[in-house]
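Hi everyone, sorry if this is the wrong subforum. Our group has a chain we'd like a structural model of before ordering constructs, and none of us has done structure prediction before. Sequence below.
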Amino acid sequence: MRVSSHDLSAPYHFIHYPTMTAAQERIVTSRRGTLNHIRLTVTDIDRARTFYDPLLGSMGYEQVESNDTRVAWAGWAFEGSVLQWFIISAASPENLGRTHDRYAAGFHHLAWNADSREQVDAFHALLLETGATVLDAPAEYNYEPGYYAVFFADPDGMKLELVHVPEAGSAAYWEAYKSRNRHAAGDI
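Answer:
Right subforum, don't worry. Here is the predicted structure as tokens:
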């Protein structure tokens, strides 16, 4: 990715991906709408710390806080412009017996991005090495062109995913979406 040479302290800057045409260039206007953090509640903070630490470390997160009721990891995204947090907190004593149901109202699953299919495959190997529950081994899915992911569960049964979607796949999905909307609106 190449950022234009104009002053990045301006209210916006242009992002150019080498694989994109000029029509596919994006303008980043602010950090508004990007994720700042996700915080999950777990039944056993030590077990969750042991589970998440090697996985998050492999994705570039560093453990920055840890105590008996909370553990936080942070990592930079978007070329170092956004600090993203992943936080776990201990469940309250009265909720320790509850199990997670991703089909009830609330959290279904979380997906992190990977830069390549090879990263997804290496992450799958790490999951197997750490004894994680793999729900679906790496495979291609038809959510977006080139969508390649591994699905797994944390010790509390929360579904997680590492996915690689080539930039061209996301661009193709977005262009098809925009085209459908233009047709539906009668603009074409």
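For your construct planning: The mean pLDDT is 85. The first strand starts at residue 2 and ends at 3.
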